[in-house]
Design goal:
Blueprint lengths: L4 E6 L5 E7 L3 E8 L8 E7 L9 H5 L25 E5 L6 E5 L2 E6 L11 E2 L10 E2 L7 H16 L4 H16 L5 E4 L9 E5 L7 E7 L22 E8 L11 H8 L2 H5 L8 E3 L14 E5 L5 E3 L2 E3 L16 E8 L1 H10 L1 H10 L5 E2 L8
Parallel strand pairs: 8-9, 13-18, 13-19
Antiparallel strand pairs: 1-2, 2-3, 3-4, 5-6, 6-7, 7-8, 10-11, 11-12, 12-13, 14-15, 15-18, 16-17
Helix pairs in contact: 6-7
């Protein structure tokens, strides 16, 4: 297969690779996850390299050959000439899990984030009928798909600007510090690779018994796959994560584990092609060294946690909403609350809303208490 690859590229996140293969019979565009073995490789027919036969040869599949499209399945102007690799370029979707193929500056194929669902492999300019290996692209200069690709192009152009990350940081930092106070610590969390990410530490003004950590930069790009689950996905595709903790005996030892914990999942969505959203649970990468009674195994994510209580005093979460991205999208702040295996089972069987009600009834709020007891 490698001998037939005429062009290949990895997305800016380093998490998906795409390549164009010409086997002398067909040209295909392939998309493959680098880190997530659960995601199958996606294959999209781009064009034939031979005159289109009237029917398929059943022996081709037995030989492992990529299927061509038949004469009635392709456009009359479908070419059979090879592609010049010097005239090929990709535009990746903002989420990094879709790719558009351009040839001579013209869009000819698109593997979207929803490739593989409902028998959709993707869209080719030269497909006339819907087949298992290609759907018609339609107008390659106008329409919903073209608009989506153009929006991604503008996103990447913005992120390529010299001061884009500096401006992204300043915009979010101003919002957070207006809500709380000047941050006390800052950690870079991207390992020098895209996307740019950081972790901030704050002491909320409501009490000195709580420390709060917040990601910075997760909201600078859409989460992958949200649109596969939610209709108005753009309202849920930008997030930052907050991890707040009550100090044990007034002593702050949280720097020894919390930043590393956040750093281990901060890139997960783009690395794995998955999303974080309301009611989700994710594995807690680091053990809470100050846990007294419970073994906290997961984090429960919610934008609407109950009030917290310290010495009978009710304390509301300092950050709720109001921050908007550079593209005009609402940014959701998800609070990460450590929970046990038993509590994870409750969420999966009874639902996140029921668990939030249980939290409220037990006065378990938006910040973590390492010394708390079980909710049951």
């Amino acid at each position: 297969m490698e001998d037939n690859v005429i062009y290949q590229e990895t997305n800016p996140y380093g998490s998906f690779g795409a390549f164009v293969e010409d086997d002398g019979r067909t040209i295909y565009l392939y998309l493959q996850s680098i880190f997530n073995p659960e995601k199958e490789m996606r294959a999209l027919w781009v064009q034939n390299r031979i005159p289109a036969p009237l029917i398929r040869n059943s022996e081709d599949s037995k030989k492992g050959l990529a299927p061509y499209l038949c004469k009635d399945e392709i456009m009359e102007n479908s070419p059979i000439e090879p592609l010049d690799k010097e005239k090929i370029h990709f535009i990746w979707t903002e989420e990094g899990d879709g790719v558009a193929l351009f040839y001579q500056e013209k869009l000819i194929a698109f593997v979207p984030p929803w490739s593989g669902i409902k028998n959709i492999s993707g869209y080719s300019k030269y497909a006339k009928l819907e087949t298992i290996t290609a759907h018609p692209l339609g107008d390659s200069e106008h329409g919903v798909l073209v608009d989506r690709i153009e929006k991604s192009k503008k996103f990447w152009e913005f992120r390529a600007e010299p001061n884009s990350w500096k401006n992204i940081q300043a915009h979010r930092l101003q919002f957070l510090e207006n809500k709380m106070s000047t941050h006390s610590k800052y950690w870079s969390a991207d390992g020098g690779k895209f996307p740019h990410l950081a972790i901030l530490k704050f002491i909320p003004p409501s009490t000195t018994d709580i420390v709060l950590y917040c990601t910075l930069g997760m909201s600078a790009q859409n989460l992958p796959t949200v649109e596969l689950y939610l209709k108005e996905y753009e309202n849920h595709a930008r997030i930052e994560i907050i991890f707040a903790l009550k100090l044990v005996d007034g002593v702050d030892n949280t720097d020894t584990w919390v930043p590393n914990c956040i750093g281990e999942f901060i890139k997960y969505p783009w690395n794995m092609g998955k999303w974080f959203g309301e009611g989700h649970t994710i594995t807690l990468p680091r053990r809470d060294p100050e846990a007294l009674y419970l073994n906290f195994s997961h984090l429960f994510l919610t934008a609407n946690p109950p009030y917290g209580f310290i010495n009978e005093k009710q304390i509301d979460r300092p950050i709720q909403s109001g921050l908007v991205s550079e593209e005009g999208q609402n940014i959701n702040f998800l609070y990460a609350i450590p929970i046990t295996e038993e509590e994870v089972h409750y969420i999966r069987t009874q639902g996140a809303k029921s668990f939030l009600t249980l939290m409220e009834s037990k006065q378990l709020g938006w910040f973590h208490n390492s010394e708390r007891e079980s909710l049951f």
